[in-house]
Each structure stands twice: as structure tokens, then as C-alpha cells.
Design goal:
It is a single chain. The chain is globular. It has one helix at about 145; strands spanning about 10-15, 15-20, 35-40, 45-50, 60-70, 70-80, 85-90, 95-105, 110-115, 120-125, 130-140, 155-160, 170. A hairpin with a 2-residue loop joins β5 and β6 (about 70-80). About 0% of the residues lie in helices and about 55% in strands. The chain has 1 helix and 13 strands.
């Protein structure tokens, strides 16, 4: 669902997958976002999602650990007219940093997230199905005490784009 309400213009359900129709709203913005979230229910958990981004031309799509608009970590595929790359980014309050950028040629990407009591670890599956590290972040910075909200941590698939009428498919979430 979106953070506010289900919006069929942003998300469509299909058998075994979801279609995201991204708008310009990103994770750090207030507003309806093309995203689907699942609550983290235990310290040690694994999440995975595969994104088919062939129809995404100028935006980003990825997996996030989300407390609120100012406290989240994400691994995503970023596409522009001139480049395509994997990115790992962390935001804690007003501080944010892109930790890693890697060139990436494929239009389909599988992100994995593993969580334990202390760390969130993001990785991407290579052509052989092996997890390649993308980045990590400490769990203690995505807490109610730091972020100031009571919703708890959500893990989600999201997409945003500069121009309208783009679509991407999410599987295996």
C-alpha cells in the first residue's frame, strides 16, 4: 500500500507480481508514493524482490528499510538518459549520503536485504545468483528513539520517476 491509502494509479496487482507506476514522489518526500511495504516483525529476517525495469527510463526502483521520510536506507537501480547504476543510500534525519554507486547494464535486478539485531545488509544477485554486497546500515538509527515515530520499521519495494507513464514489475517480494 502507499503510506496513506491504496492508490490503483500507482500500484496494480497481478498474479505473482505487482506493477508500480511511479510518480515524482521519492522516499524523502511527503506524498503518495508508488510503494508496497511489509512490517519488519523480527530482528533476524530476509527480504528479496526482483525488479523488471525495462520500461523505466528516468527514475529509480529498489528495496528500502523505511521508518519515515527522514529515516531510511535503500538499494536501488537508477536510470537516466545517459547512465544506469546500482546505488546504496542512507538518510538519518537531515543527514544523507550515497554510499555506493556501481554501473549496471541489465534491466532486471534482484535486491536482497538481510537484517539482524545490529545491521541491515543490502545486496544484489549477480548472473550466477550469488549475492554481491551493496551496502549496510546500523539498525539503531532507524528506531523510534531516533526517528521520533511509532510506526516501526517497514521494508518495501518502491519506484519514482521524473516523467509519467512508466511502469515496472516487482516479483518475489
Amino acid at each position: 500500500m502507499t503510506l496513506f491509502e491504496w492508490d490503483p494509479t500507482l500500484i496494480e496487482e497481478e498474479p505473482h507480481s505487482l506493477l508500480l507506476h511511479p510518480n515524482q514522489t521519492g522516499l524523502s518526500d511527503q506524498g503518495k508514493l508508488a510503494a508496497v511495504f511489509q512490517r519488519q516483525t523480527a530482528f533476524e529476517q530476509q527480504f528479496q524482490a526482483t525488479f523488471d525495469c525495462r520500461q523505466l527510463t528516468d527514475g529509480q526502483a529498489g528495496l528500502t528499510v523505511f521508518l519515515n521520510a527522514t529515516h531510511h536506507y535503500e538499494g536501488y537501480l537508477e536510470k537516466t538518459a545517459t547512465s544506469q547504476q546500482l546505488v546504496f543510500r542512507r538518510q538519518i534525519g537531515s543527514l544523507w549520503k550515497v554510499e555506493k554507486k556501481l554501473p549496471y547494464a541489465a534491466d532486471t535486478v534482484t535486491f536482497q536485504l538481510s537484517a539482524d539485531k545490529e545491521t541491515y545488509r543490502f545486496s544484489v544477485l549477480d548472473e550466477q545468483g550469488q549475492a554481491q554486497p551493496l551496502g549496510s546500515g546500523e539498525t539503531k538509527y532507524l528506531t523510534t528513539e531516533v526517528g521520533g515515530v511509532f510506526t516501526g520499521i517497514m521494508v518495501g519495494c518502491y519506484a519514482s520517476a521524473s516523467s509519467p507513464q512508466q511502469t515496472l514489475r516487482v516479483r518475489d517480494f
